């Protein structure tokens, strides 16, 4: 589709072009009344997956499409922002059209659009926002800006009847947060990673262990490869890893030390066996199991302190003791089971969305839009300046957790899968 105006154009994949001035066109505040039939189209391009979905107030997914870049990034050993941007550019138009096709509706029948504006990769976010603004202007639709982490924290409510407030642990390749979800737009941040995210560290660890040289793990992400390899361990407690931040009485995380410890163990074993090039250490399965258990132990330790703090401060209702685990690492069944045992210890129910919704997707963005409309939130103006790659998450009360000075013993984690 081309516009007969003297404008430079912004070219997207699928033959669609968008005038470059669209990011600067003002989209005015408007109200949208909610009903169970309210239908929202969500667009997600914060990192490396191009996702689009149409969801209604009943929580039904009318149509969805996801273009994953995982195969490319596995080959290159991680997400390359420029490659991600190029693939978003090529796929965004196709993702939206395919989602609409599967829903058997057109954009004119959508009540509003929702798009991720923060946090994430700047180039990737820009693709989604520009395209969403183009659609909103063309079809005269309300456009709802979405916070990526808030969408992860809320999407489980689409599948389960989980009232506010509740505790959430968001663990992925780009983030690690512990927070209290008080309402659709109200979050209390209890802890965050001080360095790397757990998924990022697992991907780097898998690369250093050369798991992709083993055929059955060559086409999956690093974190998934470690989970699968750990199931073949015969001595999962062979390697000992330190518990990060053990003396720090807060809910923050640190994973870089675990990665460094793993690298030293790999180097030692490679030297012992005289390995060269692409050769993999014989103890690879046991090392994967031990490393995975160290990640789970660290997460469980911080989660237990968060639960204790919330109960002390009465941040959660005694009759609604729920925890939501979301993000890509939440797909790891071993890690989830370890966290579930912590929840059970304190009488909490643990939930996680279906695996395909734990990772980045358009469904969670569309559902977040539904939640905002249902609550009656004022839809803010959206311009290119709203994109915030390093946006914070919620009201930071980390210092209050530190001041509480809660001693929590390191949990005992079973290494068995």
Automatic annotation (TrEMBL):
Domain Gcp-like, residue spans: 61-367
Matches recorded under CDD domains: ASKHA_NBD_OSGEPL1_QRI7_euk (cd24134)
One annotated Gene Ontology cellular component of this protein: mitochondrion
EC class name: transferase
Main location: mitochondrion
Catalyzed chemical reaction(s): L-threonylcarbamoyladenylate + adenosine(37) in tRNA = N(6)-L-threonylcarbamoyladenosine(37) in tRNA + AMP + H(+)
One record GO biological process: tRNA threonylcarbamoyladenosine modification
Binding note for cofactor: Binds 1 divalent metal cation per subunit.
Cofactor(s) the protein requires to work: a divalent metal cation
Localization (cell): Mitochondrion
Any one Gene Ontology molecular-function term assigned to this protein's record: metal ion binding
Keywords attached to this entry: Acyltransferase, Metal-binding, Mitochondrion, Transferase, tRNA processing
EC code: 2.3.1.234
One Pfam family linked to the record: TsaD
Similarity annotation: Belongs to the KAE1 / TsaD family.
Record-linked PANTHER family: TRNA N6-ADENOSINE THREONYLCARBAMOYLTRANSFERASE, TRNA N6-ADENOSINE THREONYLCARBAMOYLTRANSFERASE, MITOCHONDRIAL
Quaternary structure (record): Homodimer.
Record's function text: Required for the formation of a threonylcarbamoyl group on adenosine at position 37 (t(6)A37) in mitochondrial tRNAs that read codons beginning with adenine. Probably involved in the transfer of the threonylcarbamoyl moiety of threonylcarbamoyl-AMP (TC-AMP) to the N6 group of A37. Involved in mitochondrial genome maintenance.
Name of the protein in question: N(6)-L-threonylcarbamoyladenine synthase
């Amino acid at each position: 589709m081309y516009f007969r105006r003297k404008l430079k154009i912004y070219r997207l994949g699928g033959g669609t072009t968008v005038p470059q001035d669209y990011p600067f066109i003002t989209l005015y505040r408007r109200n949208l009344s909610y009903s169970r039939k309210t239908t929202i189209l969500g667009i997600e391009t914060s990192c490396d997956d191009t996702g689009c979905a149409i969801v209604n107030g009943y929580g039904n997914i009318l149509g969805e499409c996801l273009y994953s870049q995982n195969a490319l990034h596995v080959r290159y050993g991680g997400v390359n922002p420029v490659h991600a941007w190029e693939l978003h550019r090529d796929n965004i138009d196709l993702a939206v059209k395919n989602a609409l096709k599967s829903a058997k509706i057109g954009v004119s029948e959508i009540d509003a659009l929702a798009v991720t504006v923060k946090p994430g990769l700047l180039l990737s976010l820009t693709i989604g926002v520009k395209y969403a603004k183009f659609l909103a202007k063309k079809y005269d639709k309300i456009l709802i800006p979405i916070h990526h982490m808030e969408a992860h924290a809320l999407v489980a409510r689409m599948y389960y009847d989980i009232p506010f407030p509740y505790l959430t642990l968001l663990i992925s390749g780009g983030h690690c947060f512990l927070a209290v979800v008080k309402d659709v737009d109200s979050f209390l941040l209890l802890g965050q990673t001080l360095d790397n995210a757990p998924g990022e560290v697992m991907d780097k660890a898998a690369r250093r262990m050369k798991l992709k040289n083993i055929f059955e793990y060559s086409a999956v992400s690093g974190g998934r490869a470690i989970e699968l390899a750990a199931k073949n361990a015969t001595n999962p407690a062979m390697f000992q890893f330190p518990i990060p931040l053990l003396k720090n009485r807060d809910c923050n995380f640190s994973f870089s030390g675990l990665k460094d410890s793993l690298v030293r163990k790999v180097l030692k074993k490679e030297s012992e066996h005289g390995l060269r090039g692409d050769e993999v250490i014989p103890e690879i399965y046991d090392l994967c199991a031990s490393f995975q258990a160290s990640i789970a132990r660290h997460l469980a330790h911080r989660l237990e302190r968060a639960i204790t703090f919330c109960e002390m401060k009465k941040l959660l209702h005694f009759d609604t003791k729920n925890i939501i685990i979301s993000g890509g690492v939440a797909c790891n069944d071993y890690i989830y089971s370890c966290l579930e045992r912590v929840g059970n210890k304190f009488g909490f129910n643990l939930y996680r969305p279906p695996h395909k919704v734990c990772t980045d997707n358009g469904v969670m963005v569309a559902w977040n839009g539904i939640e905002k409309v249902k609550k009656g939130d004022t839809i803010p103006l959206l311009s290119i300046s709203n994109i915030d790659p390093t946006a914070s998450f919620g009201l930071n009360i980390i210092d209050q957790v530190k001041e509480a000075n809660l001693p929590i013993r390191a949990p005992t984690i079973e290494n068995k899968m």
